[in-house]
Amino acid sequence: MKFLILAITTHVLLCCVNGDWWNEYEEALKYYSQEELSQEQPGKIRPQSFQHPPFQCPDMSPSPTIPTSVERVKAADIKVIAALGDSLTTAIAANASNILGVPFEYRHVSWSIGGHGTYHDVITLANIVKLFNPNILGPAPLRTLHNHPTTLNETGFNLAVTGHNTVNFSEQARNLIDTFKTYPGLNFEEDWKLVTILIGMNDICDYCKDKTLFSPDSFIHYLTESLEMMMNEVPRMIVNMVQILTMKPLREVKKPNLGCILQKKFCSCLVLPDENSTELAELVEANLQFQRKLEELLNSDRFFKEDFAVVLQPYLTHANPPRLADGTIDLSFFTPDCFHFTIKGHEELAKGLWNNMFQPADRKQMINSFSDPVELICPSAEHPYIYTRPKALSSAKSLQITWTLMTLTGLLTVWMSVY
Q1: Which residues contact residue 292 at a Cβ distance below 8 angstroms, ignoring those fewer than 6 apart?
Q2: What confidence score (pLDDT) does residue 88 get?
C-alpha cells in the first residue's frame, strides 16, 4: 500500500509539469524501485529547529520623511519587495529531501524573496529587510508546484517562472507592473519598491539549441526592453540586477544517481559536451559575453533617474562552487537534481546580495567561493542608503572632484608665487 501511494504521488507530480525533459524523467523513474526514489538524502533539508543568531545594526530606522531621491533610500524605507527570474528564484527543490521533491518550488525560502518565518529561521533578502521594516509587502509565504496554478497568497511577489528564458522576461515584467498597480494596500505612487532579478542562465543552458535566440545580443535586447518598461511605468523603484554565474563549474556537480540525470535535461548545452570540445569553449565564451554586455548596459546611466535605478550587483561573477577539504564538490549545497541550490546555497546568495546593496559601484565585494560563508555587513553611518549611482556617474563624479582639486591646487600655487 505504501508503495502504491508513493507511485501515485510520483505520477501526479510529474503529470503536473510540462516539458520534454519531464517526460524523459518520468520514463527514467520506471527503472528505479520505490525505496530508491523515496530514499532520504541527509544534509539536503533544513531542520525546523534550526536558528540563526541575531543580526542587529546600529541604525535600523527609516528616514524621517519618505525620500524622493533614489539615492536616499534606507533599508527601512522599502515598503515592497519582489523578485523575477527563473528556477533559481522559484527555489526549485531547495528543501527537497529526495528526488520526488524536485517539482516543488520552495518560494518561501528563495534567496531574494523568501518570507518563511524570520531571519532566525532562514536568511533571505526579504527576511533581512523585515528586520528593518517588519510590515514589508511581498515576501513569498508558501511552497508551490511547478506549472500548477498559483495565487499571490501563495507566491507573494515572487513572480519568477521556472524554465523562463530572457525571451519570456517581458511577461514577468508586465505581470509585476500590473500587480503593483492593483495590489490592495500598496501605494503605487508613494511606496519605495525593491525588485531583484536574476535571469539568463537558461539562455546559456539552451545556447546550442538556437545560437541566435539565446545569444548574448538577444539576452541584452530582451532584458533592455523589459527594464525600459519598468522604468517608464513604475515610480520609486530600485532594481537589483544580479550578475549571472560563471556556469562551467556546475559540470563538476554530479553523482551516479537518478537525480543527476536531470542535470543533463536542465542544462544539456553545458553538461553534455566533452571537456576539451569546441562546443564547450564556445559556450564558455558566450557566458563571458553575457556578463560583459550586462556590465556595459548597467554601468552606464541608461537606467538611472530621480526615482528609479537599476543596479548591477556583481558578487556572483566569478563565484566558485563549494568544496570539501579533499577538493571535491560539497553536494550539501545542491538539490537532488544536482543543479539547483539547497537552502544553504540560497542563504549565501542572499547575504552576498545584501552586502552589495550597501557597497558603492567601484567597491562591491565578490564571492570567490561558496565554501567561505559570507559575513553580513551593516549600512555605514556615513552612507546609510542603498547605493544606486551607476559606475559611469560615480566615475564622472570622482573625475570632477579630482579636476576641482587640481584646479584649486593650481590656483593656490599661483597665489603663493604672487604673494
Answers
A1: 216
A2: 96
Q: How many CB atoms sit inside 10 A of residue 7's CB? A: 13
Lowest mean pLDDT among 9-13, 48-52, 360-364: 9-13
- The whole-angstrom distance between residue 128's C-alpha and the CA centroid of its chain comes to 15
Distances from the Cα of 231 to the Cαs of 16, 64, 298, in angstroms? Answer: 35, 26, 13
Burial of 153 (0-12, 13-18, 19+ CB in 10 A): exposed
Residue with cell string 533539508: 45
Whether the Cβ atoms of residue 219 and residue 290 lie closer than 8 Å to each other: yes
Classify the phi-psi angles of 416: left when phi > 0, otherwise alpha if psi is within -120 to 50, otherwise beta.
alpha
The arithmetic mean of pLDDT across residues 166-194, rounded, is 97
> Any residues with CB less than 8 A from the CB of 229 and at least 6 apart, and which?
170, 173, 174, 177
Beta strands in 86-174 (DSSP E): 104-105, 144-145
Residue 43 or residue 15, greater confidence: 43
Catalytic residues: 87, 203, 340
Claim: this prediction has a pTM higher than 0.70:
yes
Q: Is the dihedral of CA 156, 162, 167, 168 positive or negative?
A: negative
List the domains of the chain with CATH numbers: 39-413 (3.40.50.1110)
What integer pLDDT is reported at residue 415 of this predicted model?
A: 55
Torsion of CA 92, 167, 148, 339, to 10 degrees: -20
Mean pLDDT score of the chain, rounded to an integer? 87
Cell numbers found for residue 403:
579636476
Q: Where are the alpha helices (DSSP H) in 77-196?
A: 87-90, 125-132, 152-155, 169-182
Residue partners of 86: CB distance under 8 A and separation at least 6: 160, 161, 162, 163, 164, 165, 198, 199, 201, 202
Relative to beta strand 192-198, strand 78-85 is parallel
Cell 563624479, residue?
397
User: Would you say 301 and 225 are in contact if contact means Cβ atoms under 8 Å apart?
Assistant: no
pLDDT of residue 336: 85
